[in-house]
Amino acid sequence: MLSFIGICRRWSRTPTSQTRDVGHPYLLVLFALLLLPGTAFGQQHFRGDKALEITREFVAIGPRWCTSPGHAKAEAFLREQFKHDKLEEDVFTANTPIGPVAMRNFIVRFPGKKDGVIVLTTHYETNYPLRNIGFVGANDGGSTTGLLIEIANELRGKTLDGYSVWLVFFDGEEAIESWQGTDNTYGSRHLAAKWGGDGTLKRIRALMLADMLGDKDLNVQKETQSTAWLSDLVAQAAKNTGHSKYFFAKEQAEEDDHIPFLKRGVPSIDVIDADYGPHTPEMSDGYHHTAQDTMDKLSAKSLTIAGDVFLESIKLINQR
User: Fold this and answer.
1) Can you list the alpha helix ranges (DSSP code H) found in 36-143?
2) Alpha-carbon distance values, 174 to 95, 99, 170, 257 (Å)
3) Which of the listed residues 106, 116, 167, 170 has the most CB atoms within 10 Å of its CB?
């Protein structure tokens, strides 16, 4: 196939009348193709618009704190999304400040040819202490649930030449009473212990946690407890996809669902935009954990960026 530059050079040597009648229209078409994703000349981007629509449908369930009717609806939503996939429901009982609570992680597996696993994770429930204010967690839990479901749509039906990719939707990331001691990350602590006991952790080449990535004003912090080589790899993935300006301008530590896996020696990273919304005396932490965490604060562009970087990171991990 001729290169685009070669075609242009060939047309530049045609007679003026032919160029006027044939060359210019075709050049316009080729320039248009160059700008379109998914063509021979353009780069295919992740469908952030699709991820946003999935998020919108999921968030429309309403509050989904543990033990609520909305939580049961969220579980049913995930079952429906993965009804044709290899879906595991990891059911357990968590000891919480309000007593024993039944919780459920969802695990979806897409097999690869290489021996090993890349795990992409998020949490899907909303904050129990905010159950009386109509907190729907559009960004906090909602946006990254939509992100991972659309990533699954990208992977489904394809032969993965690299490692298997598993998606995990954690339950119980949020505190039941307050973020003190062990009153948080119930689902990830349970699964890390379970996989540590049955040998699964040894198969994991990398774990990537997605959190609060739908923010219109996307600014992903470099989480300082994350595995160094994996942070470097995500930075390279952002550079490769043209999204470096949205990543790692600031650094901070986060207590999140990656920590139980880090403690057990699994290379892990928290890809998180914790700087969400304006910080005011009334909202010291921005929109985070407020009733203002709603769909109008999210954008398809941010989810496109996040999806591009996650998919590129999978490629780079496979190349290590």
Assistant:
1) 48-59, 69-81
2) 14, 15, 10, 10
3) 170
For the segment 111-137, the average pLDDT, to the nearest whole number, is 97
Q: Give start and end residues of each alpha helix (H) in the chain.
A: 4-12, 16-18, 24-35, 48-59, 69-81, 144-155, 186-198, 228-240, 259-262, 300-319
Where is average pLDDT lowest: 2-11, 50-59, 105-114? 2-11
Phi, psi of 291, rounded to the nearest 5 degrees = -70, -5
Round to whole Å and give the CA distance between 103 and 92.
6
pLDDT of 31: 47
Per-residue CA distances from 30 to 7, 21, 182, 212, 221 (Å): 10, 16, 58, 38, 39
Summarize pLDDT for 6-38 with one digit per residue, the tens: 433 433 444 444 434 444 555 444 444 444 443
Distance between alpha carbon 204 and the CA centroid of its chain, in Å? 18
Query: Is 65 exposed, middle or buried (CB count within 10 Å of its CB: 0-12, 13-18, 19+)?
Result: buried
Mean pLDDT across 160-189: 95
CB 214 within 8 A of CB 139: yes
Inter-residue contact 235 to 244 (CB < 8 Å): yes
Q: What is the pLDDT of residue 221?
A: 97
Per the prediction, the chain carries an average pLDDT of 89
